[in-house]
Amino acid sequence: MAKVTYFEALKGASLAMKKRDLDPATADYLMRALTGFDQTQLLIHYRDSLPEQLKDQFEAAVSAYLAGVSPQYIIGTADFYGYQFSVTPSVLIPRQETEELVAWLLADYANQAQLTILDVGTGSGAIGLTLKKERPDWLVSISDISAAAMTVARKNAVALGVEVTERVGNLLTPFTGDHFDAVVMNPPYIAREATPLMDQSVIESEPSLALFADHHGLAVYEQLAQQLKQGIVMTNRLYLEIGFDQGETVQTLFQTIFPDAQIRIRQDMAGHDRMVRVIFNPGNGE
Q: Has 281 been labeled as part of a binding site?
C-alpha cells in the first residue's frame, strides 16, 4: 500500500471540506491537534509519510467533521483566554466573545485582591475557572443545572490546578442565601425561531440546553432577574453575555425590576452589543 504524506492527507481533507462548504483550514487544525505540531513543525513534516495509526485517526477526525461534528468536540479540547479546556457535547464550546466578558470583569476589579464570584451556568467552567487562574486569591463558585456539565468543569478545575466551590442546580438556587461581590453568566440566549439561521453543526453538536431559551431568547434573563429580586442570592454586580440584538431589551428588563441600578451595555470587538453590566447599588461605593 502506497504511503500517504502529511501534505497529501491535508490536501485531500481540505478538498473534501471545500466540497461541503466547510472551512478547509480545519484540516490543519485537526492534524496539529492530533500530532502536537505547531504550524512550522507541520510544514517541516509535509513530505514525510504519515504513520498508519495517525492516518487512521486523521481520517476518522475528518469524517466526523464532514458529518457535522464541531472540531473541538472531535479533539476534546478548546482554547479559552490562553487556557485549554476539555469539552464534550454536554457543554458549550467556549467562544472568543465570552473572553471579552471575562476581561471586562477582570478590568473592573483590577485592584481588588479579595473578591467572591459566582459563575452561573458554568458549562466547561471557562468563565469561573479562568477568573480563578487570573486571580488566585478570589473565592470563585460555579454552578450548572447539568450534572454532566459539572463533571466536565470539575475535570477542568483539576487540570488547571484550581479549587472552586461547585454545585448543581437551577441558576442561583444552589447558593441560596449567599452573597457574592459579582455574579457572571453566559446564559442560553438564542431564540428557538432563529434555528433556521444557525450553523447546522452548532445545532447538531452543541447542547440545546446551553444554546436556546424561550420567550425570544429572554427566558433565562427573566428567571435570573426574578431570583435576584427575591433575594435568593445577593450580589453587588451582575455581568451577562447577550445576543447581538438583545441589548436594549435586557437593559429594560433589569431596569424595570431594579429601577435604581446602573446598567451598561458593552459591544464586542466586532461592534455588536454583547455584554451587560448591572450595578445594583451604585451609590454605595459601587
A: no
Residue 29 marked as a ligand binder:
no
122 assigned ligand-binding residue = yes
Asked whether residue 156 is marked as a ligand-binding residue, the answer is: no
Instruction: Using the structure block, give the residue that is written with the C-alpha cell 453568566.
Output: 185
Inform me whether the pLDDT recorded for 198 exceeds 80. Answer: no
Cβ-contact 182, 236 below 8 angstroms = yes
**187 carries a ligand binding annotation:** yes
Nearest partner of 173 among 238, 239, 223, 117, judged by Cα: 223
In the chain, where the domains are located: 6-67, 81-279
Beta strands (DSSP E) in 51-205 are 77-80, 83-86, 116-120, 139-144, 165-168, 179-185, 190-191
Q: Is 49 annotated to bind ligand?
A: no
**What are the grid coordinates assigned to 36, written together?**
502536537
Q: Is 124 annotated as a binding residue?
A: yes
Q: Which amino acid is at 84?
A: Q
Name which CATH class applies to 81-279.
alpha beta
Residue 128 marked as a ligand binder: no
Give the pLDDT confidence of 11-48 residue by residue, as tens digits. Answer: 999 999 999 999 999 999 999 999 999 999 999 999 99
Helix axes 26-35, 6-19, angle to 10 degrees: 140
**Residue 76, CB half-sphere, CA atoms under 13 Å: how many?**
4
189 is in an annotated binding site: yes
